[in-house]
Automatic annotation (TrEMBL):
It is an enzyme of class 4 (lyase). This is Putative pterin-4-alpha-carbinolamine dehydratase. GO terms for molecular function: 4-alpha-hydroxytetrahydrobiopterin dehydratase activity. GO terms for biological process: tetrahydrobiopterin biosynthetic process. Pfam families: Pterin_4a. SUPFAM superfamilies: PCD-like. Keywords: Lyase. Belongs to the pterin-4-alpha-carbinolamine dehydratase family. Its EC number is 4.2.1.96. NCBIfam families: PRK00823.1-2. HAMAP family: Pterin_4_alpha. It catalyses: (4aS,6R)-4a-hydroxy-L-erythro-5,6,7,8-tetrahydrobiopterin = (6R)-L-erythro-6,7-dihydrobiopterin + H2O. It comes from Natronomonas salsuginis.
C-alpha cells in the first residue's frame, strides 16, 4: 500500500496545473468542446483502470474537473501524483 506523502512532498511534487484541496489533489482541464472533454474523461478512465487507481471526475461544459486521493491510505500518495502527471500528458 502506498504511504501518505508529507505536506512538503506534495507541494514539491504536484504536477503542473494541479492544486491541493485537503486530502485530494485537483485540476480542472479545459477544452474547446463538450465532447472533447468527454473524450478526455474516457481516456483518463482507461489510464485509471490501467493503474487501478480511480479519480472522481465531473464533466462540465468544455471542462473536466479531476480529483485524486488514495482511499486506501486516507490521503495523498505517490499514486495520485503519478496518475495526475499521466492525465497532464493525456491532455497535451
Ligand atoms: C480495494 C481498493 O479499492 C483498490 O485497491 C483500489 C481501487 N481504486 C482506487 N482508487 C483510489 N483513488 N484510491 C484507492 O485507494 C483505490 N483502491
Amino acid at each position: 500500500m502506498s504511504d501518505r506523502l508529507s505536506d512538503d512532498e506534495i507541494d514539491a511534487e504536484l504536477p503542473d496545473g494541479w492544486t491541493r484541496d485537503g486530502d485530494e489533489i485537483v485540476r480542472t482541464f479545459e477544452f474547446d468542446s463538450y465532447l472533447e472533454g468527454v473524450g478526455f474523461a474516457s481516456g483518463a478512465g482507461g489510464l485509471a483502470e490501467e493503474a487501478f487507481h480511480h479519480p472522481e471526475m465531473r464533466i462540465g461544459w468544455r471542462e473536466v474537473e479531476v480529483r485524486l486521493t488514495t482511499h486506501d491510505a486516507g490521503g495523498i500518495t505517490k499514486k495520485d501524483l503519478d496518475l495526475a502527471a499521466r492525465f497532464n500528458e493525456l491532455a497535451g
